[in-house]
């Protein structure tokens, strides 16, 4: 199990190192919060396409082989960018945006495959949900951010170096998955994608989020996503405004806390009762952070830096908690589709949020609005968790005599 977790983490590490330094690279071409916000929107939107495309495909078996196939495609795409950078270190921003869109399609698809693979290996949906986040790009940020701080210090072409790291990590994960797929007992199922059924599969991946078994947690998760969207452009605005360290290093450092939060908050999910209490506490923290951000506005960037750290932990915990609640309620035969659907709405809400907040920050009036929006979202989350807890207690209290517990 450890080898599988380590291999997936290495693959995610290369991807997120590249992603963290593409923003400073774009700054050298055209420094704009609006462009960064568009990149965030693109990341989420094209990641959404990747997830909906493979949701049904994942549930048809041969998960390891399919994962290896997509990682090989990521490697090929990384090599294309590497050759382009070697020929011309200063590429057009349009080329980077097109390349990032293609890469995000594969990135989103691999997120569904890693979740299904880890869920099958652990035999637990909740552990699969937590492990997939810890070993995902979000969890890998705790290591990637340190590398991203060091690379610009010793290389004049840090983005090229990160693309090399990305290619190497993709190659290592592809090799591991191919060996695992060929060794031992072959998983049942087929690698065939069935392109003719793509439209129906995508509709299924979008619609399955709304099946009755997932209520009310699908609605609660959407509220959470809306409340904490825009974290990338928020970190970028803080990194550019602060004057303590170079902005590229500050931006990468912000993601250290973002990634660390997924590792620190994961153990809090072990006990269901304790997990619910932490959900209440984190919702209260979100309200407090939102109110303070709304009052401060743009006047104190150091306050916003501290708020970002707290919000990173709130964000990580709620991603874990809401994912577990939905995964545990998903029908076994549609587990991959449900995970794809979760990522679809995460990508949609976070992507639009990045663009809206980016445009707001570019006009100078976004910080206070973002703060008050998060305070309102935290209040709704708090009421939602308390309502679900009260409803569960009433159901337990009025179970008829002789009925199953």
Automatic annotation (TrEMBL):
* UniProt key word Membrane: yes
Q: Which domain of life is it from?
A: Bacteria
Q: Which UniProt keyword terms apply here?
A: Membrane, Transmembrane, Transmembrane helix
Spans through the membrane: 7-26, 38-58, 67-89, 95-118, 130-153, 159-178, 219-239, 245-266, 278-297, 303-321, 342-363, 369-388
What is this protein's name? MFS transporter
